[in-house]
Amino acid sequence: MVSHRNKRISRTILTGAVLATAVAPTMAASAQPADPDPLARYNELGAHAAKTNEDMLKARGDLKAKREQLARSTVAEQQAREEEERFRGQVDALTTATFEGARFNQLSALLVSESQQDFLNRMSALNMLATDNNEALQRLGLAVAKADHARQSAQEAANAAAKLVGEVEQRQRDLDGQIKEVRAALGSLDPSVRNDLKRVKDTGSYVGPPGSANAALQAALSKRGAAYEWGAEGPSAFDCSGLTMWAYQQAGIQLPRVASAQYDVGMAVPLNALLPGDLLFYDDGTGNPAAIHHVAMYVGDDKMVDAPTQGQVVDLRPSRGDGHLMGARRIAG
């Protein structure tokens, strides 16, 4: 006969086993989070890479500007040095003339003059010589200061360019790594999804206000189906800011190369007062213009035309974008 104590022990063991069996799957499930949506992951990586691409393009633009400044400063320094040498030659000639006795004081002029008129003539010549010498010295001083300033500007530009070279190289490495991630995420998508991403879905006609805005809009719409390519400015492939820049170029308006700089152009527009041709800007949700990673062009009907990321084509999409629409600018009109 089994004792009451043994029965209680058996029931305790059995209950523990049942509980362990019930809890174990729950714990395992919580330790293994569900895989993220592959398409959402692809879009997220594309947005991050787009921001890095914009940063890299900005760094390249800054480097180009510094190299151009260095070239201008170098030319300015050379010209200033030539001017310095020219005025230095004049000063040396006047100094030589002084040592050779071309300059006399008033007493000397009086003693050697043969007449009153001769004395006046000599004094006039002495005054002219003194004036020329003072002017030459002043010009020499200005030329030296100008040359020194040009040399300093050239050195600063050279230092800044050298620093930016490293920054561009680092941003390019960052971009290359993120592009690999985007391509891997794109490759993980179902083939039918990848094919759908490359298909133009809206071939409708849209018209903007007469003038440059509509010309830019029609230019952008004409590129529906063009492939996305990092850093591309057209005419057969684009990144986001490359498309908007190219479109407005066709309308005779030059925009900066990167989205964050394009945000500084034109006039701010409330999101409830958009017109076709306005540019839409997207950030990381912070509202910080420095965090802008995407730009598109409004076409009307709450739609935009844009070049989103690798694996997709220029096409029309909902203007809400990724949910981080942070502002709009009217470039023309």
UniProtKB/TrEMBL annotation:
<dbReference type="InterPro" id="IPR051794">
    <property type="entry name" value="PG_Endopeptidase_C40"/>
</dbReference>
<feature type="signal peptide">
    <location>
        <begin position="1"/>
        <end position="31"/>
    </location>
</feature>
<feature type="domain" description="NlpC/P60">
    <location>
        <begin position="210"/>
        <end position="332"/>
    </location>
</feature>
<keyword id="KW-0645">Protease</keyword>
<keyword id="KW-0378">Hydrolase</keyword>
<keyword id="KW-0788">Thiol protease</keyword>
<protein>
    <submittedName>
        <fullName>NlpC/P60 family protein</fullName>
    </submittedName>
</protein>
<keyword id="KW-0732">Signal</keyword>
<dbReference type="InterPro" id="IPR038765">
    <property type="entry name" value="Papain-like_cys_pep_sf"/>
</dbReference>
<comment type="similarity">
    <text>Belongs to the peptidase C40 family.</text>
</comment>
<dbReference type="InterPro" id="IPR000064">
    <property type="entry name" value="NLP_P60_dom"/>
</dbReference>
<dbReference type="Pfam" id="PF00877">
    <property type="entry name" value="NLPC_P60"/>
</dbReference>
